[in-house]
Design goal:
alpha/beta, 7-stranded mixed sheet, 7 strands
Length: about 450
C-alpha cells in the first residue's frame, strides 16, 4: 500500500560501516562524515513525515456549493431591500408633492417644528416637568372670564409685591423665562377667590331683581325668599320680623328663668295674668327640643304601647297633649295653662285626682321650679301600690345622679331602670313601694337640680 522509504535501503550501508580508528583524519574522511550527517537528517525527516496523521482527501466542489447558497441569499436580501427602498422613495415623492401644494407656509411650519424639537432636546427632562406644572396651573385657574379680569386687584398686587421682596431670585412676570409661576394649593386658591369676591361685592352697585344672581342650592334655597331691596315697605317688614323674632327669644328666656327660679304657684299666677305668655313659651320650647336627635316623649310613648291599654296614666306637664294623642290608654293631662281641651289647668303639686287612682305617672321635662319634692309626693299620693313613675329630664341638670335616686327612694319609690346613654336627657323608671319614709321637714339635697337656662344666640 505504501512505498518503503529510502532509509530502509540505506540502512545496511550504515550498519556495515566499521568503527573508525583513532588517528589523524584525512580530507576524504571529513567528506564522508558530512555525507553521513546529511543522510541522518534525511532519515529523521522521513520518519517525522511518516509519523504525522494522514488527512482525508477533501471532496471536490463542496465549498463551492455552500458559497453559491450564500450568494443566493444575499441576492434575495438585496432584492427585498431594493423594493423597500423604492416604496419609501415613492412615499417621499408623494409627501413632497402634497407639501408643494400647500405652499411656503408648510415649509415655515417644518422649520419651526425642527426648532422646537431642538429646544426640547436641549431642555431635556426639565421641559417635561414645566409642561406638567403649566397644565396644573391651568386646571386650578378659574374658568369664568370675570375672575380673570379681577386679577389686577389689590390682593394680587400685594401678593406680587410680597413675593418680589421675599424672593428676589424669582423672575418677573414680564421676563421670558422657561420657569413657570409658583402653583397655588387648593386652600390658597380658595382664599384668594374669596378675597376677590369680597372686594368686588364691596363696591358693586345694587342690581335689579332681574339681574340678581341665583341663590345657593343648599341653605339659602331652603330659607324664605328675601324681599326686594328697592321696596321700602318690604325692607321695613323684614326688619320688623327680625325684631319680633329677637323679642320672642328674649321673652322665652325670661319666662324659662322664672319657671326654674320660683315655685309652681308663682308660675301659675304668671300665666293666668298673661295667657299669651304660655303660648310663646311653648313655641320656644318646641324649637329647642326639635334640634335633639331623639325626644324623650317618643321613648315614653313607645314604652306605654308595650303595656296594657287599661292602665290609667297621669301626665304632669302635658303641654300639647302629645302623649294622650299617641296611646290608647286613658290619660289625665295637667299643666299650668291650656293649649288643648283635654288639659286640666292646675298646680302640679295639687292635682284634682283621688288617692291611689292612677297606674302610671309621667314627668316629661316638667320637674321645673323649686318645689320638685311636692311634685313627687303628689305623684306618690295618686299612684296605686306598685304603680310606675316615669321621669325624663335634661342631663345637664344632674350634678349627682346617685344622690337624686337616693332622694326619690326616700319618698316611697324604688329604682326599676335608668337610661343614661342619651346625650340630651336621662330617663328613669320608679315603682311605688309605699308612703314617703321621711317627714315633710327632712331635707333632701339630691332633689336640688340645676336650672336649664338658655343662652342668648
Amino acid at each position: 500500500m505504501f512505498d518503503e522509504p529510502e532509509w530502509t535501503e540505506e540502512a545496511p550501508v550504515a550498519t556495515a560501516l566499521a568503527p573508525v580508528a583513532t588517528g589523524p583524519r584525512p580530507a576524504a574522511a571529513v567528506q564522508t562524515k558530512g555525507s553521513k550527517h546529511r543522510q541522518l537528517l534525511a532519515t529523521l525527516r522521513a520518519l517525522e513525515a511518516a509519523s504525522l496523521p494522514q488527512q482525508p482527501p477533501s471532496l471536490p466542489g463542496s465549498d463551492s456549493e455552500e458559497e453559491e447558497i450564500e450568494k443566493k441569499k444575499k441576492r434575495r436580501k438585496k432584492a427585498s431591500f431594493a423594493s423597500a427602498s423604492a416604496e419609501v422613495e415613492e412615499k417621499r415623492k408623494k409627501k413632497r408633492q402634497k407639501q408643494a401644494s400647500y405652499g411656503s407656509d408648510s415649509e415655515d411650519e417644518e422649520v419651526e417644528r425642527k426648532k422646537k424639537s431642538c429646544k426640547q432636546a436641549l431642555l431635556g427632562s426639565g421641559s417635561v416637568e414645566e409642561e406638567k406644572r403649566k397644565s396644573k396651573c391651568q386646571k386650578q385657574a378659574p374658568s369664568s372670564r370675570a375672575q380673570h379680569l379681577d386679577s389686577g386687584d389689590q390682593t394680587d398686587s400685594k401678593a406680587q409685591k410680597g413675593s418680589a421682596t421675599n424672593d428676589p431670585h424669582k423672575p418677573s412676570p414680564g421676563s421670558a423665562s422657561p420657569q413657570p409661576p409658583h402653583a397655588l394649593s387648593r386652600k390658597q386658591w380658595r382664599n384668594r377667590q374669596k378675597n376677590k369676591r369680597r372686594h368686588k361685592n364691596k363696591f358693586r352697585p345694587p342690581q335689579p331683581p332681574a339681574q340678581a344672581p341665583a341663590l345657593a342650592p343648599t341653605e339659602e334655597a331652603e330659607a324664605p325668599p328675601a324681599p326686594r331691596p328697592d321696596s321700602h315697605e318690604a325692607r321695613a317688614g323684614a326688619l320688623r320680623a327680625r325684631m319680633a323674632q329677637r323679642l320672642d327669644g328674649a321673652r322665652f328666656r325670661y319666662l324659662n328663668e322664672q319657671l326654674y327660679s320660683g315655685p309652681s304657684s308663682a308660675a301659675q299666677r304668671l300665666f293666668q295674668e298673661d295667657p299669651e305668655a304660655f303660648l310663646l313659651y311653648h313655641r320656644g320650647f318646641q324649637n329647642q327640643v326639635k334640634k335633639w336627635p331623639l325626644q324623650p316623649v317618643d321613648r315614653i310613648i313607645r314604652d306605654l304601647r308595650q303595656r296594657p291599654a287599661s292602665l290609667v296614666v297621669a301626665d304632669f306637664g302635658c303641654g300639647d297633649c302629645r302623649l294622650a294623642l299617641s296611646v290608647r290608654n286613658p290619660v289625665h293631662c295637667f299643666d299650668l295653662a291650656s293649649l288643648d281641651s283635654r288639659v286640666t289647668v292646675c298646680d302640679m303639686a295639687q292635682v284634682p285626682l283621688e288617692d291611689e287612682s292612677v297606674d302610671v305617672a309621667v314627668f316629661c321635662l316638667s320637674l321645673m321650679g323649686t318645689n320638685i319634692r311636692d311634685f313627687l309626693e303628689e305623684a306618690n299620693r295618686v299612684l296605686k301600690p306598685g304603680g310606675l313613675l316615669k321621669v325624663a329630664e335634661v342631663s345637664s341638670r344632674f350634678e349627682d345622679v346617685r344622690a337624686f335616686l337616693g332622694a326619690v327612694t326616700k319618698l316611697g319609690f324604688k329604682v326599676v331602670s335608668k337610661d343614661l346613654t342619651n346625650s340630651h336627657f336621662f330617663l328613669f323608671d320608679f315603682q311605688k313601694t309605699g308612703p314617703p319614709r321621711v317627714g315633710p321637714k327632712a331635707e333632701l339635697s339630691g332633689l336640688k337640680l340645676q336650672p336649664c337656662l338658655y343662652k342668648r344666640r
